[in-house]
Amino acid sequence: MRRRWSLLLLAAGIGAGLLLGGVYLAGGWALARVTRSRLPALIEATQRGNGELRRVEFTEASVIPWMTLSWAPIAAEAVPPPSRRQPQPKSVRVRATQVTARLSGLWPWRAELRIEGIRIDGSVSLSAPEDVPFGGDDLDVPLDRIDNGRVMIPDIPFSSNLRAVAKAEISAVRLLLTEGSSPRPLELSARLHFRLRGIPMMVRIETLRQDGQTQLRIKRTDLDVLSGRYYRPLTAAEKDLISRHPIKAPVLLRIKDYAERNAQRLAATDPGYREDPTRHVLWSYWLARTYGPEFAEAVTEAHEIGSANTPQESDRDRSNNRLGREFAAAKKTEGQVVHLIKTDPRVVR
């Protein structure tokens, strides 16, 4: 009897092993079929007017012990949202080396999604003001490439309504990428490649969980290298502010560069202009027009904190910064501002 039970247990173990092995051997084929059948719902979940996903392709799908699904490699075609400059934006190709989903909770059932090795080749335009004069210079395209990207989305609820789950998770990631923060506990990192005055540059972005929000950050040490490319390097306070606003960072850097170059040009061609007052008024004016007076004041104040200016020089700069914000609030054109810099007695020279 004992031997019979031993044989039955052995047979059951072998049967279970064969069944489990069959599931994993055939699981990749089944997973590939199910995934391809459900991809249209995922793609449809992105059709919200803020850019869209047109196609998703993968080469292999596999089932890995225990309760882990994997797709690799992944390629997708994405279309950025339209803008005035690009009413019909070109699609960009997005690639990832692997996408992995694994069970992370049994009751209620939860999953974790990881996307590794994300790469976006080709020019990628970020959100930027539509009516700025610096849109046509050598910084017209803030990003040339994104690579070494990684996204981790935890605690995804299981649901028969795949479309609703996909919409919710896509919205959370989109909010993080467009606003710089999201209540969803996400992890994201990547390298951003761009050009500053024609010179290739790179900064890394990463996430930080703080006060119930996931905050997107530029790696602070990367700004030390970037700072040296400016005629007047960024102060420590400026680097801290820019690192906390990665979505605004490319435009902030473009505005700073534009104000510096035009102040130099005006001062070199017309003795009625002094470079420093011209730069501060123009810089503050475009910051206020682009992001509002409060944020403009925060940016210009960060420049004064830790600068080598004397108290008198800082007072002069703050007065000219304030005047630039006033010109923006009065809806002056840049041409009018340039004329006022030369003629307005309130400009501290």
User: What gyration radius follows from the Cα positions, in whole Å?
Assistant: 27 Å
**What general form does the structure show?**
elongated
Low-confidence region ranges: 2-23, 137-141
Q: Give the proportion of residues in helices.
A: 40-55%
What is the number of helical segments per DSSP (H or I, 4+ residues)? 9
| Major sheet details | 10 strands, antiparallel
Question: Can you write the helix and strand succession as a string?
Answer: HEEEEEEHEEEEHHHHHHH
Q: Which percent band covers the strand fraction?
A: 25-35%
Count of DSSP strands: 10
Task: Provide a descriptive summary of the structure in words.
The structure is a single chain. By secondary structure, this protein is of the alpha+beta class. It folds into two domains: 1-219, no CATH class; 231-349. 44% of the residues lie in helices and 29% in strands. The chain has nine helices and ten strands. Strands 1, 2, 3, 4, 5, 6, 7, 8, 9 and 10 form a ten-stranded antiparallel β-sheet that branches. α4 (236-244) runs antiparallel to α7. Residues 2-23 and 137-141 have low confidence and may be disordered.
Please give a handful of descriptors for the protein shown.
2 domains; 10-stranded antiparallel β-sheet; 29% strand; alpha+beta; single chain
Strand and helix layout:
Elements: H1 2-44, E1 52-64, E2 68-79, E3 92-96, E4 98-106, E5 109-124, E6 143-157, H2 162-179, E7 181-182, E8 187-196, E9 199-210, E10 213-218, H3 222-227, H4 236-244, H5 249-269, H6 275-291, H7 293-304, H8 311-329, H9 334-343
Antiparallel strand pairs: 1-2, 2-3, 2-4, 3-5, 4-5, 5-6, 6-8, 7-10, 8-9, 9-10
Helix pairs in contact: 1-2, 4-7, 5-6, 6-7, 6-8, 6-9, 7-8
